[in-house]
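TOPIC: backbone geometry
CONTENTS: sequence, structure tokens:
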Amino acid sequence: MPIQTIDILEHIYTAALIPEEWNGVIDRFSAHLNARGGSLFILVDGELYWEAPSATKKIMEDYIAGGWDKNNPRLDGLLARAHPGFVRDSDVCHGDHESLPIVTEFLRPRDIAYTTATVIKGTHDDLAVFSVDRGRAAGSFTQEDIGWLDALRPHLARSIALSSRLRLKQAATATATLSMVGIPAAVIGRNRSVKATNDLFDKLCGTLFLPSAYGGLSLSDPRANLALKEALSPIARSGTKVRSIPLRNADGIVGVLHAVPAYFHARDILGDGGTLIALAQPKDAALIEPEWLRWLYDLSPVEATVAALLARGFTAGDIAVERRTSISSVRSHVKSLLRKTGLTRQTDFVRSIASLAAIEPLTLHR
């Protein structure tokens, strides 16, 4: 992986714990893509938060002040398309994109000629839009650009989902940080001991989470426990990979446990070598959405779409018709997603996903 991409990944996961770092993340995306800037909008519990670096901050302020956030067909089209990846603005608008008022009256006078963006759904009803903008001289975003963005999107999704729940502004300690998290979370120290937890995490102790020797933590799910041990190993901590671990109980899968290591200023909150673990459990209505399946199993956008259709009872032939592709192509995607989920049969995968919809995520009720 290129050094520049690794640097971006590290800053993405730092921003999960320190939202002020999102401006630096957007700047790094812009520099890599020869863009003039970008923005991040997050809707949490009905409240809108946004971040934009200095290059585009004034533009975003004008965007909100002018009410364009409430009159933006480009955004409406992006939300309606619900594509689990980055798309160009011109690809989500019906009719003549160039004649839209937001284009002629707001974007073009500010030399915003091309935009690519993605919608990210988090826990609860959290929603985020991450976008990058180019001026006319830089040209439109290429398929290579979109491919690079899509490769980083799962990392953005994890980090934004945690950031939207944290909403940190002045947190000084791990305990203060966790008190702001609306999902079960804990801080694990360098020696694998539990340093801090929140109330939602404590309520699951003895069931999903089990105490172990020397103040450590184990999981009641043996397979997930092995994955957590690997995620907390010194080798894993020294890398840039955030582990997303499916967590099961006797009834089936109950959520996905994210292990996020501390980078840069996040060490001030988690401590050097610290790791934040957080259990994400989306609402019942979102449990079989492609985005959730991508979170759970690190699937590609196409694999996640195929998985969601399988969960809805589609056969390989049905999916081929739905996606206008060949059955052999669908079966290839099925084999790949089975390999990633650790299952050997398609029926086992469907049962696994069905168990998600059968469980009410009690920890979401606050």
